[in-house]
Amino acid sequence: MANLVSRTEYEERLTASRDARMAWWREARFGMFVHIGLYSVLGHHEWAMASENWSPREYEKLADRFKPAPECAREWARLAKSAGMKYMILTTRHHEGFSLWDSAVNPFNSVNYGPKRDIVREFAEACRENGLRIGFYSSLMDWHHPDGGRSAYDSDARKRFTDYIYSLNEELLSNYGKIDILWYDVARPMETFEGWNSLEMNQRLRALQPDIIINNRSLLPEDFGTPEERVVPEEGRDWESCMTFNGLSWGYIDSKQAEPYSYNAPRILRMLAVCASNGGNLLLNIGPGPDGSIPPESREPLKAVGKWLSQNGEGVYGKLYNFKGIRGVGGRLLSLSRKGNTVYAWNWIWPESGDLIIAGLTGKLRSARLLWNGRSLSFTQEKYRINFGVPLREDRDPLGVTVIALEFEHEPGMVPYAAQPPLTLGRVWDV
Ligand code: GLC
Fold first, then answer.
1. I need a labelling partner for 384 at 20 to 30 A (CA). Which of 34, 120, 283, 371 fits?
2. The pTM is what?
């Protein structure tokens, strides 16, 4: 039983344990979000039940056509691993209210209906097999539960409903071994943390999983911020940008429609660069089909990113320092991340003619090396200007995102005139 404390004391305790609890998360950088549920059968968007006004009875019938293949969780995990991702978050129950596990409190679940299997268990096992950390997404809102809407104005219903939500999460955090992340979503219809009883709920849940990391969507700040569909650093706290793969839907939509909007590998690296240079993580979504298969438009770019990360991961994972990210240097846009005395300069443009120059960094440069092929670069350094001469065309990274590791004698800085105001990027497609 959790020993309940006041909000102030709760938050002090969280702050005191945060560095230890989040050490792995702060170095992980890249995770996979998986949205799958009955909405995947429709393929209209995961909000279809509400936006198309389905009655619960009518919607339940979709379960007959929800048949994720037995191996699908393994395939997601294998892809995540080969993409260089370090953790996964599964929608264990989305707003539609269908639990993907053997729930005693929610009979509307994947063991009673549809595949007749515990998908959450398969997911947790697949993550463990592939050395990935495990996260559970858990919606607060529930369109299927009779008290879900009523709890806005009926206090008895609210009590039943918040107890129900607690019990679901208690099952998830009791029956599947060590769980690393609890990822709440959409606190509706109550609009305050008191309305959800979040302070008590989260203390009780943390007592079950003392090392767990919880996001900010139960209306308490908890451990990290969750900018959605934009890669914008949050100042002064841990943050993770969650992104759909296509800007259209988290849930499955067919490839013909999704493909033209889907990210390619360089676009994904663009997002990762902002995360790497500003201390954040990227949680990139796939929306498998109702048979659990991975959309092809996600598979190929993720594999290419994984190959790139296998050569360039040094500048992406681990304890990186904020170097205020992208700024204009010599007419190019460049991203910078730093580890100790080494700055990683992400070059998006590889000069076709003329010299490759990086300006604005202070300190004496000791060596320069291309991450992707390991080649050392010769250079001259004059004041704040490092000149690599005319770059070889074949030194350009095959994906076109060429990272140079610049090792300085001491911790480098940036000259004030070249330093830009704190990075405030708009949506990632404005970058
Ligand atoms: C939302 C949406 C939801 C999605 C989530 C992921 O706020 O309601 O469908 O699962 O964002 O971040």
1. 371
2. 0.94
